[in-house]
Specification:
7 helices; seven-stranded mixed beta sheet; Endonuclease, Chain A; 208 residues; alpha/beta
Amino acid sequence: MVATGDPIEVSDEQGPGAFDQLMRLEQVANRIFLVQSLFVPGLFQNKSYAEEMIARTTGLQAGSRELSDRVDIRLQRGAILEKRLQAATPPQVSIVVDEGALRRVVGGPVAMREQLGHLASMARLGSVHLGIIPLSYGAHVGLKGSFEVHELADGDAAVFFEGSQGDEIIRTDQAVIARYRESAEALMTVALTGGEAIDRLEVISAEL
């Protein structure tokens, strides 16, 4: 993992370098927006869910070293964020997830219930704001693709995209970054939030 004290180069990048910048940013950002329509955001995945998701989406074999390494990195990232969330001055994290992603059973019913329980536990933290777009809402801008916005205390910000053709991060075009932040905020206004979001997680879990 990257040392949080290292300087973060401001640049737009595609490929592995984009993911390296993301890992640096998520360790120091004071505001994070995660928009995901297909699966639980990586920073909030537990081990069983992460293993199944990474294996199925990459084709890596269960028990392989590469799969183990990727899962370990994802869990380390989540652990670092969780530690920050429990600090005296935690970052504010907004998560927008489509209900369809939460109803997709990854790793079997038991593993999925554990994942939903973990997400509910995190959503009870005062600095984590969970929004669930209900299936009844229909189409929304989040269906165009997942993205993350990370903002630093000094006003620097970036938007990150994870895709099948490679990762991309934009850090120099503030108009683009602002547009994606506005999209995330707009989605939160139509999502189930607070107790309603946690109630929906419990309903989905009970139906597994």
